[in-house]
Design a protein that fits this description.
By secondary structure, the protein is an alpha+beta fold. α11 crosses α12 and α22 runs antiparallel to α23. 45% of the residues lie in helices and 13% in strands. The strands form 4 sheets. Strands 9, 10, 11, 12, 13, 14, 15, 16, 19 and 20 form a 10-stranded mixed β-sheet that branches. Strands 1, 2, 5, 6, 7 and 8 form a 6-stranded mixed β-sheet that branches. Bound molecules: adenosine-5'-diphosphate and magnesium ion.
Length: 745
């Protein structure tokens, strides 16, 4: 953080600019040099974090305290075992929830839902109703808790609601706890809900998550039964999402129309010093940033989000935050809430939190690594191999099911991480390639190779590692090293799906993972049930032959080497693995018959619901590219072109002045810039000629058009504009530079 001085204009307490500098850029820079972060807002001695956790959540313990025993038991049973919710308890729960919320200062309640835009939507209603005698009473009925009708007809539905009445309902999701959203002027009781059409079709991201968890549980129970575990304890998928993000000063943000409207920079030459030194990675966290992180964590804690890890990431200005894993449905809601919290808190510190996958070209992008596993209260983590995985038949079965699933549904997994933003990241040599493969590590690869060849007799020992310094203790060594280049890596007791984009809801990836694993478990259970015919002594040989068959069919998905290398791309092609490079290549996977069958067979998405997602995501992709193209044109024409032309004017008059004085000033700079400006003008004309076309009537041709025609035209404008950035006088350049945005903290 640059120390405060009085060089610039005046800055309001929230760090916003209130000066009229010569350009937004110079105003931004002067505002930052005068910025002082809010002083010591938090006092963890006065309020220890233990007390904050869940403070704003109508948690199970809050419910236990406030609900009649029988009502609590019924509710807890639904949450813990997935049993059907008894609607007759709704009135009692609603009353207790209302009292709790009013004690917390709530004036309104909101059904919170998650439309296909990937954002979070809320509709607020007052808790107060007139009583008819001139007074008002706080009211909140079971009906209001269970069901809402937010209209919300403007959310994308991919055709579902056009064909029917435009009614949409929100339905209370009892598995995700209600919470209080604070604002300096009042608080709101927020109730997580599913959002469906009046035909019951899912209009949101939550409903399929819940359905897919149910499918996974059903199939996992069959496998567990084969291993003699018939207690029926709910098998739930678990998710731990690591979120990468950038923080930049708000003043720069407001001086960049591209950041404001597209979330990423559409122009910007590479800075002389980028991330080559890796000096930012895990480095000391700058003060203002740390202050912001502390407040984010505190707010997250109050909302029951178990934030655990924070650190600097590879790029300058880039950071990561990771909560502990939770049940997939809760983790999904919490992830959305965390992104909202990060954005809100950053503003208080005069910064903007960027979650776009690639805000700065040439600088590392941001992903969201979704750690995925499944487990139950009686079996624990089903992907925990233990000390000797070769003897852990149940683990091997679950693990092989995942391997088979990823191999069989590569295209689907690729499509659920496809977005305009993530296209800049996947395959760009700092994020996993667009080719799906699994990293298993040495120990497990060895075990599965043994199984493939006949039978697994041993597990490579994990051993211990000595560092060669006496004062450092020997450490137990993990049985497998890490692999940062793998899109789907086994990391000890879970898989880490690393291709997910930073700005994405994790719902889509989780729905896909839950459902493809359910399908694989179904496949395995069916085979094993047939082979054993109820005779458990036949289980081991049956499993051996099943696993060896799976490894022969799906083993090509396993790759422990460098996913960034050219050799891998060639090798993957030989193995017949898919390499879907862009969203336009990947989204059509949602249309494949095998994918349609998958989702309808397990009642996760009907054919129409799936179709609606394909339509919606294609439309979103096209709209994003369209907005970016318009912005590129606008910024190119109204900011960059004028700056360059002004500079030509300055150069020309300087030349005249020198010549008038009898000297000479060469022509080379002037002519270089003039020819680049000409190139810029033609590139802008070329972009304008293509950017407003739709590229046909179908989603498939429209995404292709955006990808193949509009993006290259945009890139051509940027290329010449970035060259001009290196030629035009710095004081005339209108946009904050990469250097400024990334290094001034
Ligand atoms: P790394 O950076 O080494 O990948 P982190 O500690 O940043 O590790 O994140 C690991 C994530 O994996 C955490 O969110 C953690 O809670 C999560 N995780 C651990 N066990 C499981 C599990 N069984 N299921 C899902 N996620 C898990
Ligand atoms: Mg990780």
């Amino acid at each position: 953080m640059i120390s405060a001085n009085s060089k610039g204009g005046s800055v309001s307490s929230n760090g916003r600019i209130s000066v009229s500098g010569s350009s937004p850029r110079s105003a931004a820079i002067s505002a930052i040099t005068g910025y002082e972060p809010p002083s010591s807002r938090l006092n963890f001695r006065e309020t220890p974090t233990q007390e904050l956790f869940n403070a704003n959540v109508f948690s199970k313990s809050a419910m236990k305290e406030r609900l009649p025993k029988s009502v609590f038991k019924s509710l807890a049973n639904t949450i813990d075992t997935g049993a059907t919710l008894d609607p007759s308890i709704a009135d009692v729960v609603a009353a207790a929830m209302k009292d709790w919320a009013i004690e917390k200062g709530a004036t309104h309640y909101a059904h919170v839902f998650f439309p296909l835009t990937g954002a979070t939507a809320e509709k607020h209603d007052s808790l107060l109703s007139p009583d008819g005698d001139g007074a008002a009473i706080a009211e909140f009925s079971g009906n209001q808790l269970i069901q809402g009708e937010p209209d919300g007809s403007s959310f994308p539905t991919g055709g579902i609601r056009q064909t029917f009445e435009a009614r949409g309902y929100t339905i209370w999701d009892v598995t995700s706890p209600a919470y209080i959203l604070e604002n300096p002027n009042g608080t709101t009781l927020c109730i997580p809900t599913a959002f469906v059409s009046w035909t019951g079709e899912a209009l949101d991201k939550k409903t399929p998550v819940l359905r897919s968890m149910q499918a996974l549980n059903t199939q996992a129970q069959r496998i567990l039964a084969l291993f003699g575990h018939t207690d029926g304890a709910l098998v739930s998928s678990t998710a731990g999402p690591e979120q990468e993000y950038f923080l930049i000063d708000q003043n720069f943000f407001y001086a960049r129309p591209d950041l404001i409207n597209a979330g990423r920079t559409l122009f910007g030459a590479a800075p002389p010093k980028g991330q080559e030194f890796d000096d930012h990675y895990f480095g000391a966290i700058p003060d203002r940033v740390l202050a912001c992180m502390l407040e984010v964590e505190r707010e997250a804690f109050k909302l029951g989000i178990p934030v655990k890890t924070r650190h600097n990431e590879v790029a300058p200005g880039q950071y990561e935050i990771a909560p502990l894993f939770e049940f997939a449905n809760v983790a999904t809601d919490h992830q959305q809430l965390l992104m909202t919290t990060m954005r809100k808190v950053a503003e208080k510190y005069g910064m903007v939190c960027l979650t776009h996958e690639k805000p700065f070209a040439g600088v590392n992008g941001s992903g969201k690594h979704v750690n995925f596993s499944m487990g139950s209260s009686s079996q624990g983590n089903l992907l925990d191999p233990g000390e000797s995985p070769h003897e852990n038949a149940q683990f091997l079965c679950f693990c092989a099911a995942v391997i088979r699933a990823v191999h069989k549904f590569q295209g689907l997994l690729r499509s659920v991480v496809a977005s305009a933003g993530n296209d800049h990241r996947l395959g760009a040599n700092e994020a996993p390639p667009a080719i799906l493969s699994i990293f298993l590590g040495d120990q497990l690869t060895d075990v599965f190779n043994q199984i493939k060849a006949g039978t697994a007799e041993s597990s490579l020992p994990a051993g211990s590692m000595t560092v060669g310094v006496d004062v450092l203790p020997p450490l137990p060594k993990h049985a497998g090293d890490r692999n940062r280049t793998s899109p789907f890596a086994f990391t000890g007791n879970r898989f880490e799906f690393r291709a997910v984009g930073a700005n994405q809801s994790i719902a889509g990836p989780l729905v896909a993972m839950n459902t493809i694993v359910a399908e694989s478990l179904d496949y395995c259970a069916t085979k094993l049930e047939e082979a054993t015919g109820g005779d458990s002594s036949k289980l081991n040989p049956a499993l051996q032959s099943l696993l060896s068959e799976i490894m022969n069919e799906a083993g090509s998905i396993i790759f422990n080497g460098d996913g960034y290398s050219d050799e891998w791309h060639a090798e993957a092609e030989k193995r017949g693995l898919l390499n879907l490079k862009t969203t336009a290549d990947a989204l059509p996977a949602l249309e494949e018959p095998a994918v349609k069958d998958l989702f309808s067979k397990y009642n996760v998405l009907s054919e129409r619901e799936l179709e609606s997602r394909y339509e919606t995501y294609s439309e979103q992709y096209c709209m994003t590219i369209n907005v970016e193209a318009s912005l590129t044109s606008e910024i190119g024409r109204t900011m960059i072109y004028p700056a360059a032309v002004r500079y030509i004017g300055e150069l020309a008059s300087a030349k005249n002045a020198v010549e008038a004085a009898g000297g000479s000033l060469g022509n080379s700079v002037l002519t270089t810039i003039a020819s680049k400006v000409d190139e810029l003008a033609s590139a802008l004309d070329a972009l304008d000629a293509v950017k407003d076309e739709e590229g046909g009537d179908s989603a498939a041709t429209q995404i292709r058009y955006a990808c193949d025609t509009v993006i290259p035209a945009m890139n051509a404008v940027r290329e010449v504009a970035d060259v001009l950035e290196g030629l035009v006088a710095d004081d005339l350049w209108p946009l904050p530079t990469y250097q400024e945005m990334l290094f001034i903290k």
